[in-house]
Amino acid sequence: MPLVDPLVRDVVVYSSILVMLSTGLTLTYMTTKVPNFSHGGFATIGIYVTLTIGMLFRLNPYLSAPLSFLISGLVALSMYLGILHPLSRRGASYLQLMIATIAFEFLIFSIINIYADYLTENFGRLVEQARAVFLRKIDYRIDFSPLASALGLGEVRGLDEPAMFFIAPITMISSIVALHTLLTRTKFGTGMRAAIENPPLAEVVGINVRLAYAISWFISGGLAGVAGSYMPLWFLTGPETGSQILVSIFAASIVGGFQNLYGALLGGLVIGAAEILGTAELATALGPWIIPYRPVIPLVAMSITLLFAPQGITGISWPSLSRVKTSGATD
Amino acid sequence: MNFVLAVTAQLAVYLIITISLNIEYGYAGIPHFGKVLAVAGGAFLAGFLPGRVGILLLKLFPHGDIVNIVCGQEEAGSLKILTSLDEALGQYIPCNNAVIDWLGGVIASNIGFALLLIIITLVSSGLLGGFLGFITSYPGIRLRGDYLAMVLLAMGEMLRIIGLNYEPLVGGTLGISVPNLYAWAGGELRFVVATVFIILIAAGVYFYAELLVRSPLGRLLRAMRDNEVTAESLGKDVAGLRMRTLVVGSAIASLGGTLYALYTGGVIATTYSRVSWTFWPWVMVILGGTANNVGTLAGTSAFVVFRQLIIFYKDRLAGFVPFNIVWLDTLILGAVLLVILLQRPEGIIPEKPTFTLRREKLLSIIGGDVKKGVGKEEDS
What we know:
The complex is a heterodimer.
Chain A: H1 6-32, H2 39-56, H3 64-89, H4 94-127, E1 141-143, H5 145-150, E2 160-162, H6 164-185, H7 187-197, H8 199-204, H9 209-230, H10 241-256, H11 261-286, H12 296-308
Antiparallel strand pairs in A: 1-2
Helix pairs in contact in A: 1-6, 1-9, 1-10, 1-11, 2-3, 2-4, 2-9, 2-10, 3-4, 3-9, 6-7, 7-9, 10-11, 10-12
Chain B: H1 2-27, H2 35-60, E1 69-71, E2 80-82, H3 85-90, H4 96-108, H5 111-137, H6 145-165, H7 167-170, E3 176-177, H8 189-214, H9 216-226, H10 228-233, H11 238-264, E4 266-267, H12 274-288, H13 293-312, H14 314-318, H15 325-343, H16 359-366
Antiparallel strand pairs in B: 1-2, 3-4
Helix pairs in contact in B: 1-8, 1-11, 1-12, 1-13, 2-5, 2-6, 2-11, 2-12, 5-11, 8-9, 8-11, 12-13, 12-15
């Protein structure tokens, strides 16, 4: 008998991954005011870094997380500096910025596909499947039976848990804490918040707004990369994963309100739990045919939020729920 | 010849879709990233409706043809012979190919029946498209454009998931055949007839768009795009206007999807992906120049021809490109979009300024005299 219900494990890992993604998306939305449609693409980069590290080089798959942070972060940074910043300096509307992020997503998508083809052709034997990446078998397992016997529970078998079950939530929590510390306890973070609140005024007092925004893109892309690097160790991924999970990321961010990072944390947890538990409950109630319709759940959550509380859960004034705010996002 | 025909048909289908996108994005400023939804809706309708309606119609109006549909293989032990219309309707999905073949035979000998089916299909396609446009935009219609964009993009995925998993709709992962409603033209000629038909509808849509953007409504759309607050302050219902634009745009796009499915003769849910039917039209509109129907025509032609050439010369190109040519497609999509956005955001043919009415016309509207050159205002 496993120590933890598999469903709970799924919820914990998937929600953690989603939180890392929605936090990054919300961060760049707060700074640059553009929903980043290539956020899923940054995560896909992480997937392939893990494949390369774990299967091609046969190294510890968790080494991929810092590397993915760096690579995806640099890709995001180059998108901001090379495309978004020049565009917005020229007075492009947010519509044009959105289209630019979509275009960038397609560059990432094609390069990932070319890379996957390259891996299959040249290292097919080593990487096994480059288009359907599922590496749970190379994840470590943490054994709890010594602990159980130390506590005097006797010899209990099967008390090992996949390492991801611990590493994903730990990474998620520490990245949120790190972001919180950066934004509230450091001078740079204060400057960044000022740049978010009022860019012209921040510039007047000598804050480098461009640098602050660039750093936000680097962090956002990096977090997406880390989240992506964990994905193949938990579920089946591929070149399309990024664009598939994009709907869930948007839903998590919108449910969280798109205005602050703690909202993104809540939104990620809510959507992650709703997707996993909702699908499981519906499958027991209605039958397994419902499982492929899982992507409908974040969509419904997103629609309900936008209809009844467009500012998200953090925007609702809970004490006076009778008067739900409807302003804000409606300008 | 076949190449020219294929390019023309695809060009006309894409033109229908890009014109509708140009109305939505170019003129009204709505970032419709869920274009694929209406197109897939129309195509799925072509897979779902005309065959079944055809059989129902044959039931209502008894027809001379003897029903004898052979389905499955004797060796495989799955042989079924359908001898009544009810059976054909019941076995529509499992015996899809056989039923569609038989229906094609009936259509071939009865042009009136075919035309009736085409009209029914197109009208319901337009209605379905409008309905899809309404429900998908409803959650986000009052919000700022970027929220609406996210909602529409997310909604766009839904129909494909349903189409892939719910077999009675379009046969799930196997796909479904569409009745050959042009069978009366006979043989290869059906493709010519189908293409001409799509071109006619595309021309109609183009003409409609031209009329629309020259009308007061067209000016209102542009006013909304350029400054929502001002439009609202002048008493215009911005959310309602957006909604109507999306309903009309989706209805047109749905027609495009239906015509495409009727032309190719089959529907499979995987074809209706975000890339092919949302992002390709976007590239075409932006390449050609937004808020400009001539530009849209130019952008669509340039891109469809270019893509078809890549596909046509695939084997010859393969030597020069060190990877699968399929990815060249998406790579070019991304690169071209970025280059246009950075270097020439107005597209090949920029938007023209709105022509104001001639002085005589203005004066006649306000009731003044051309010769005097002053309106009634002075008198009163």
